[in-house]
């Protein structure tokens, strides 16, 4: 990464603006958390999109709403894409920066009323307060304070907010990948790790289905005429689980096993659902190839096994480009006397899809929070000004290059 053509606005300069913005941040966070916006609640997700759109229009963004095709799944809310053109062309060193977050939560309708937004000291609680409503608002606030500081040194700022990240982004994925294709850098707005670390790597996931075909027979009269698919599946489970530990950072999990219909029938068919996770694309392919090799073995005479790849989410690899972005964010944090580490996680998110298009990606840019997906979910609002200033300064440093 080349050095900026001139000194960008610093986190220290931005911190007073971030501190002044905290009351509005908290008020808007309470408003967002009060909206039930589970992945399967499109009306709630779209209400969140309405609130974000109003805020983005006020910051000079143009906003586009797309209702994605759910395919064979349940309907989801809109994908929101907002754009604001900077003062620099690409030829003049301007860069396109993508901010990415999601509007959906894992919680059912009614949760916001059962567990309303609440503050216990500086700790905020409520459904989605950390994952990812606090992060989304951090992105908006970072843009706001940059503009107040007079910064406009980029080619374009783009923000995407998705409606279905918590269920794997099946409907929004094409939109995310299309928007990401034009970006130079991506900053994902999931909240920081509990110790404040940023995320430089996320494992990718391959979902595989194994279908074992055997031959039915009467279990009491002529079992020798059958070929037991359940027995073959059991052999596969043991062999598949033994793949764990073969490659660093690669895990294989047999999460679902279904077989048979009656105890007096030799089982003619079984199904296994496998999840492979790896920090690199090469690791995913190695493990998936090993699964296929195991499936090709006839572990029970008369049975056959076929493998179908149900889904593939690319890893967000810990690359030199991601590390260069981390160095920029770490430098912004150091300007405030804050040390931020780099972490890798096995969880996936929209950052995986963005990184899969080849865009350098850094995640965990939101405030510090935790206990996601649980009733104890929390956000440390005392970290909001610092994390917003770090995020804003990182955007400023990345927005213009020589």
Automatic annotation (TrEMBL):
Superkingdom of source: Bacteria
Signal peptide as annotated in the record: none
One Pfam family per UniProt: M20_dimer
Keyword Cytoplasm: no
Keyword line: Carboxypeptidase, Hydrolase, Metal-binding, Protease, Zinc
Membrane-spanning ranges: none
Every Peptidase M20 dimerisation domain range: 200-294
GO MF term list: carboxypeptidase activity; metal ion binding
Cofactor(s) essential for the protein: Zn(2+)
UniProt name for this protein: Glutamate carboxypeptidase
């Amino acid at each position: 990464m080349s050095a900026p053509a001139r000194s960008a606005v610093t986190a220290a300069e931005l911190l007073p603006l971030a501190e002044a913005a905290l009351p509005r941040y908290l008020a808007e966070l309470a408003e967002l958390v009060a909206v039930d916006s589970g992945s399967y609640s499109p009306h709630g997700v779209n209400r969140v999109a309405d609130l974000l759109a109003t805020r983005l229009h006020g910051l000079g963004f143009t906003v586009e709403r797309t209702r994605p095709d759910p395919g064979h799944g349940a309907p989801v809310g809109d994908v929101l894409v907002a754009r604001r053109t900077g003062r620099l062309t690409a030829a003049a060193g301007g860069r396109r920066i993508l901010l990415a977050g999601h509007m959906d939560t894992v919680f059912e309708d009614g949760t916001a009323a059962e567990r309303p937004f609440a503050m216990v000291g500086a700790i905020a609680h409520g459904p989605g307060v950390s994952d990812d409503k606090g992060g989304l608002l951090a992105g908006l606030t970072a843009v706001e304070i940059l503009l107040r500081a007079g910064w406009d040194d980029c080619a374009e700022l783009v923000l995407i907010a998705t409606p279905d990240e918590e269920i794997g982004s099946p409907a929004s994925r094409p939109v995310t990948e299309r928007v990401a294709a034009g970006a130079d850098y991506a900053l994902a707005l999931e909240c920081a790790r509990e110790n404040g670390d940023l995320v430089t790597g996320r494992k990718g996931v391959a979902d595989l289905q194994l279908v074992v075909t055997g031959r039915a027979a009467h279990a009491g009269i002529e079992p020798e005429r059958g070929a037991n698919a359940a027995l073959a599946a059991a052999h596969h489970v043991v062999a598949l689980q033994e793949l764990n530990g073969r490659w660093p950072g690669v895990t294989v999990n047999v999460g679902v096993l279904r077989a048979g219909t009656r105890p007096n029938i030799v089982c003619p068919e079984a199904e296994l659902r496998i999840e492979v996770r790896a920090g690199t694309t090469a690791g995913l392919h190695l493990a998936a190839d090993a699964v296929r090799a195991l499936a090709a073995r006839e572990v029970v005479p008369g049975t056959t096994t076929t493998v179908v790849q149900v889904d593939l989410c690319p890893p967000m690899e810990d690359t030199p480009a991601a590390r260069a972005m981390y160095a920029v964010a770490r430098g912004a944090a150091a300007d405030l006397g804050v040390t931020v580490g780099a972490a890798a996680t096995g969880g996936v998110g929209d950052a995986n899809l963005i990184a899969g298009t080849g865009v350098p990606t850094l995640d965990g840019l939101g405030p510090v929070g935790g206990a996601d997906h649980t009733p104890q979910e929390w956000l440390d609002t005392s970290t909001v000004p610092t994390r917003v200033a770090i995020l804003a300064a990182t955007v400023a440093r990345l927005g213009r290059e020589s």
